[in-house]
Amino acid sequence: MRAVASIALRKVSVAFPIYDASSRSLKKSLLPGTTGGRIGIGADHVPIVKALDDVTLSLQHGDRVGLVGHNGAGKTTLLRVLAGIYEPGAGTVEVQGQVAPLFDIALGMDPEATGYDNIFLRGLFLGLTRKQVRARVDEISEFTELGDFLNLPIRTYSTGMRMRLAFAVSTSIEPDILLLDEGIGTGDAAFLEKANRRLAKFTDKAGIIVLASHSDALIKTMCKSTVLFERGQVIAVGETSHILEVYRDRSHK
Amino acid sequence: MSRLPLAAQLQAGLTAHSFRRAVGDIWHGCQRYTLWGTMGLQDIRQRYRRSVIGPFWLTISMGIMVAALGLLYGSILKQKMDDYLPYLCAGFVIWGLISSLVLEGARAFIVGEGLIKQLAAPLSIHVYRVAWSNLIIFFHNIWILFLVALWYGKNAGWILLLSIPALALVVVNGVWMGLLFGLLSARFRDIPQIVASVVQVMFFMTPIIWKPDMLPGRALILHLNPFYYLVEVIRAPLLGHVPDARVWIGVLLITVAGWGVALLFYTVYRWRLAYWV
Fold first, then answer.
1. ipTM score of the complex?
2. Contact status of A25 with chain B (Cβ, < 8 Å)
3. Of the partner residues B5, B9, B189, the one whose CB lies closest to the CB of residue A24
C-alpha cells in the first residue's frame, strides 16, 4: 500500500559551524587558549551560520510548493533537511513517504562513467535493486531522449543533458516526495514541458513536490503555493502569485 | 572546574537514540551491498579505463616490486630466497590491503562529499565501498604470491583456508578504521596527513621486509604494534603455518577495542558529517 506523503517541520534550526583553514587544523582543539575559554569542536568560538532558523512548515499530499528567496536564504538547506541529508541541530522533522532528491546535478554523478552506468548508480542510490533498475532502463532512456549518448561518458554531456538523465531516474522510482533545486531550469523548452507533464501526473497521485528556484516563470507554472525565505526564516506562505509579489516588493525596498 | 570539551560532547551526544541510529546506519549501509559493490567496482574500472590490461597492472607492479625488493633485501639480510621471497611477497600484499584500508578509509567521507550532499543514504556505504574496492585489489595481487609459491614448490595445504576467516577479520577491522578515521578526517583535515605518515613509518616497523626473529630480544616494538597482528594473522596461514593463539587474541582485541571506539565516535558525531564534508 502506498503511504500518504506528508512533511512536518517543527521549529527546525540548522547551523553551520564555519571552520576556516586554521581552525580546521587540530592544534586549537588540543591546546585550549590562555584566556581559559573552551575552544573545541563546535565551541562558541567557531563562527556559526544559521542557515535555518526556527522553521515550522507542514506540507500535505498533492502539494506543489515553490521555495523562493535570495541566494543563501536557506532554500537548499531546507531541501537537504527534507531529504534527510542534514539532521537539524534543533527541532523535529517528520517525513512520510519515499523521498527522491534532485539537486545540483553536477555532483553525485561519475563523469567518467557512461550514461547507463550512471542510471544504475543513481537508481541504486535511490534504493532500487539492480533488477528494478534494469526493468526501468528502457523507460528512462526513452524519457531522456539521449539515445546513443547513453553509451558515452557523462563528461561529454551538456548540463541540460545531465539534467534530463538525473530527472528521468529520480522520477522513474515514483517517489512520494520529489525535491527539486534550480537545476531543472537548465532543460530546454521541450524538456521542461515534458517534465512538467510528468510532474503533473505525479502530483495527481498525491505526491509532494518541493521546488526551489529563482525563476518566477518556473515557479508559476509548477507550484500552487510558495514559501518565501529570508535569512533562514519563513517570511510568508501562500498562493504563488501573491507570494511572488511580496517577494518582489521586499527585494525592491 | 571546566571539563574538556571533548568529554562534554561525548557525554552529551551519547544517547540511546543516536546509538541506535549509528548502528542502524552501519547495518543498513551493509545491506546496500549492490550499491557499494557497484561503486567500488566502478572506482577500479575508472582507474583503468582505456588501459588494455586494466587492473592487472596492479598485479604486474606488485610483482615487479616484490621481485626487486626480494632480491635486494634477500641479499642484504642474507636470507635463503625460497623462504624469504614468499614471506616478503605475502607480507607485501597484505600490507597493501591494510595500508590502503587505513589511508583510503580516512578519506572515505571526504571523497564521498558530492554524494553525501546529494542523496540521502547510510553514510557507512562510503566506508564499505573503500573496503570492497581494496578487497578486489587484494585478490588481484595475491596471485603473485601463488606464483612465487609455485616457483619454489611451496604448498601451504589445508592451512591455507585459515587465511579466509583471517582476511575477513582484517577487513572488518578496516571498516571500523574507515568509520573512525574517516569521521575524524572530515572534521580535521590534518588527520589524513597524520595517518599517511604514521602508516609509512609502520611499514618499516612491522615485520614485512624483516622477520620477527631478526629482532634481538623480542622487543616491545613488535608486541605493541597492532599492524603486526593484522599482517601476521593472514600471512601465517598463507605460508602454511597456523597463527599463534597470541596473534588471534591480539587481532580480536584490536577488533573489539577498535569497534568500541569507532562506535562511540560514530554515535556522537555521525549526524554532523554532512555538515563537515
1. 0.79
2. yes
3. B189
